[in-house]
Amino acid sequence: MIQPIMKDVLFLGQKSEDATELDRQIITDLHDTLAAHREHCVGMAANMIGQKKRIIILSLGFMDMVMVNPVIVQKSQPYETEEGYLSLQGVRKTKRFRKIKVRYKDESFKEHTQEYEGQIAQIIQHECDHLDGVII
Predict the structure, then answer these.
(1) Per residue in 21-30, pLDDT tens?
(2) Catalytic residue selected from 80, 82, 111, 127
(3) Is 107 among the catalytic positions?
């Protein structure tokens, strides 16, 4: 179901809790909500739809990818950039890393550790910040 976008800074500033298989409806809602905002959104975290669970979704263009309980375990090649928010007004400067390694579960709750770089790495970092209550 398409969910409204959370804009409450106090809520968004809270850390999310680990997700379990009981949170599958949140994954479905993230798929639906991202699809509804696809023209101007490339990723979402569960707290953006009012759920404090560690789940993110990324638009890869040809498909969407879900990460449950993602943890960035390695970062390299820092750079400065600007990012916009669906849940907040404006664009903000931030530090990101060109290459990252992430440990996560897919939407079937199978564990993975994968390296990402470039725009996908930036989106993952942005969404993980949401999960950690970091508002840049």
Answers:
(1) 999 999 999 9
(2) 127
(3) no
